[in-house]
Write a structure and sequence with these properties.
Helix content: 25-40%
Pfam families: Ras
CATH class: Alpha Beta
CATH superfamily: P-loop containing nucleotide triphosphate hydrolases
Keywords: GTP-binding, Nucleotide-binding
Organism: Lottia gigantea (Giant owl limpet)
Shape: globular
GO molecular function: GTP binding; GTPase activating protein binding; GTPase activity
Low-confidence stretches: 182-192
Protein name: NF-kappa-B inhibitor-interacting Ras-like protein 1
Strand content: 15-25%
Strand order of the largest sheet: 2-3-1-4-5-6
């Protein structure tokens, strides 16, 4: 565990970003508890990757975006990964993901690890975003999608393990080129 990896959690106001993070890390969120608008919070965690390696992660919880609000540009440059969160009962929060993803890719030159999390999956009677609709969009954008419920803490674990595994992936190619012959210099030593 060397480097501290950074994950930015972002999305519209009221999608449950803070509840999701606090339930994931502490298991202390109670459904129906009044929530207050987040300005910005930072959480520290140790997440075991799918390779069995424990990685230190700093999770940044951002203020919720309104449909007309842009994400501050400095948020795009420092994270190693992004978790875009929408509320399955809010079509507007889902639509906002497309522009948010484009903003990230523009600043990061299409080199960003991004996942999408549909929150409040347990609220089927008020659902506005069908899973298949979100899945079709995520396939088109080539990013992984999860639907989760803060009520089910276990559903929150896999997306963050996946994202942490992606951002901490060791390089796949060696910089050592065994096919090249190295030039060596032989130095004759003379004993005196």
């Amino acid at each position: 565990m060397g480097k501290i990896n950074k994950i930015l959690v972002c999305g519209c106001t009221g999608v449950g970003k803070t509840s999701l993070i606090e339930q994931l890390l502490y298991g202390n969120h109670k459904l129906g508890t009044p929530m207050f608008a987040t300005i910005e919070d930072i959480y520290n965690a140790v997440i075991e990757t799918d390779r069995g390696v424990k990685e230190r992660v700093r999770i940044y919880d951002t203020a919720g975006l309104d449909p007309s609000t842009e994400m501050p540009k400095h948020y795009f440059s420092f994270p190693d990964g992004f978790a875009l969160v929408y509320d399955v009962t809010s079509w507007d929060s889902f639509q906002r993901l497309d522009s948010l993803k484009k903003e990230i890719e523009k600043v990061r030159d299409n080199k960003a690890h991004i996942i999408v999390i549909g929150n409040k999956s347990e609220v089927n009677e008020a659902r506005q975003v069908e899973f298949n609709t979100a899945l079709k969009w995520s396939h088109k954008e080539k990013i992984r999608l999860w639907e989760v419920s803060v009520a089910n803490r276990q559903s929150l674990v896999e997306p963050f393990i996946h994202l942490t595994s992606k951002i901490t992936q060791p390089p796949s190619k060696s910089t050592f080129l065994p096919g090249r012959k190295a030039k060596s210099t032989v130095v004759n030593s003379v004993e005196t």
